[in-house]
Sequence to fold (198 residues):
Amino acid sequence: MRMTHLKETLMTNDEAKADLAALVRSYREHPLHAEETATIDRYLAFIGARASCFLRSCLEGHVTGSAFIVNEALDKVLLVHHRKLDKWLQPGGHCERGESALLAAQREAHEETGIAGRVALGGALFDLDIHPIPERGQEPAHYHYDARFLLIAREDEPILNDESHALAWLSIAEALWRNPEPSMVRPLSRLPGMAPVF
Fold:
């Protein structure tokens, strides 16, 4: 299901690349975890060198968008249990043609949870991650260059879908217990009341 109010924000590939590069450069200006400088440099080099960086056809890797959906009190996060990976994760996925990373994150969040959410931080990046994806079928091993955004939502709307076993609002502590990987700890440590992990 596509959110029709987002169709108006489709971009050309060059516009989407310029928009993402500006977001990544702006992200560099905020307090960073120790490993993030290298991640930012690698991310900028990747999108600068690949004309098709948003497309799955870019086999070495491609830009993805994901959303950390938090409640209005900022003390719970909505995670999905991903069937294929058997992990609790934030919703997210591949960009479709004409989508910015933010638009992809919003669309994927809506498709996976039923929640549109309000974009927080003025649409600035909440986190940036590069992670390996193993070979699967005809698709070779590659990297996801994940642009992560923060969305705010009410706790009374989630629905299940075919991509997840479960969908749950979790306290930040429980979310980190269910998925203690650095790619989850780093962004969630930025929420109020959490000790930053550097």
Notes: The chain is about 30% helix and 25% strand. Confidence is low (pLDDT under 50) at residues 1-8.
